[in-house]
Amino acid sequence: MFNCRFSLFCVLTVLCISLCVRSSNMNKCVETDNQALLKLKHGFVDGSHILSSWSGEDCCKWKGISCNNLTGRVNRLDLQFSDYSAQLEGKIDSSICELQHLTFLDVSFNDLQGEIPKCIGSLTQLIELKLPGNEFVGSVPRTLANLSNLQNLDLRDNNNLVANGLEWLSHLSNLRYLGLSNVNLSRVVDWPSSISRIPSLLELYLDVCRLPQVNPKSISHLNSSTSLQIISFTSNELDSSILSWVLNVSKVFTSLDLSHNSLHSVPDGFANITLCQVKRLSLSHNKLSGQLSDYLPESCSAQHDLEELDLSHNPFSSGPLPDFSWFSSLKRLSLEYTNVVGQLSISFDHLRSLEDLDVSHNQLSGPIPYTIGQLSNLTHLYLCSNKLNGSISEAHLSGLSRLKTLDVSRNSLSFNLDPNWVPPFQLGWLSASSCILGPQFPTWLKYQRKLRVLQLSNTGNIGLCGPPLTNLCSEDVVPPYGIIDKSDSNEDEHELVDIGFYISLGLGFSAGFCGVCGTLIIKSSWRHAYFQFFNHINDWIYVTIIIFWVTMKRKFQIQP
Length: 560
Known about the structure:
alpha/beta, 17-stranded mixed β-sheet, 9 helices
């Protein structure tokens, strides 16, 4: 029995030792990967010495490199650094394609140039490929279609990169994130069809891509995706035909950004479908017409999860402010330049989550409702350039403890706040131009330690008084001996200093003159010695010049 246990112990001991030895050997970088990385380094221009650690035989210890613990093969190359002042330049050498076990490649936001190596399509184990924020040129390699395991493809913000087609995307069945913003897609034919064939896609970013217009006739033949959740097509000059594709391509999207396009209308039922299911919707800077209320749903059967709504900068017909009270999760509401008229009649008591509210540059009139003070999460409030009137009191502001921006300029509003009121917030921006602040200067501003921008122009407060203004108020406490005019006292002080200076100058000159000249006049022996000294000095200077001239004459043989 003892022999069996001893034998088993020996076997286990030998096995553990062999595994440890093997593990220690395998943790070291494979030589072929080491050499490939050194070639890659030579292709970079590393002025900031980011890759200073790339030396020696064990590349697994280099900055930005990760290896498989068992095989020692490089499986992760992360050259995206948080310090944007230190960037890599140069090109991606084709030696990167020798790293056949890479699953993660990120060189985001450097200053790399040249073409994307076509051989990257041979890195079939890649799961994430991130190349945004560089200066790549040429065409997007079609060989990327071979990356069947790819889940994240990010080529954004390479302004000189062009895609001649997107049909190869249909081979990326596992793709979940696609970022092609600022890549030129103007040559792509039937791009909606290519996007619709990516079954697992969750996020799609095609901003500033010069996308061709969608052909409405082809939309009905496209297969609908059940996974796409985030769509962003800003700044493409797309017309309203894109909306039909959006409604067809997905039924579960949560974020839709179509700002800065040429939308002029929306299809029937668009509001009920989108606003009842999305968390973020931006249709700003378009050409939408009709009533603003037409773009809000009549009813929603499910819970309203809308958090951000931006309909700003659209030429809607003049109309009242719609009721947003049933969007209880709303955090950001932007309605500037939407031709809204009437009173600010939002039922704020139902919008307790609201953080940003912008209804500026409209025709809103009447007083600001006191219920706005119930928005305890409000951070930014823009009411400028309307026709609002009435006063702003503590009831409007006391509940806004998180407020950082307040813009009520270009209205007919007046501040009516107690001089001893201490605000619960710290503003960074206050604009109250064209508002009445008086009669006293708002003393509550002295508590705003983080204020960076203060605009109080064109207030028309001729009688405004109180510190820090020099114009004192009539009720200010007067010292026992009267108010001291600091400006006059300063002038008197300057006059006294000037008089004292000239008196001191005259006394000093007189003392010096009398001390020297008076002594010479009175004592004849000092006077004779004084002038005799100057005679000796005169003779010495004359003799020295003559001797110097004779010496130079002999040295250079100058003829008389």
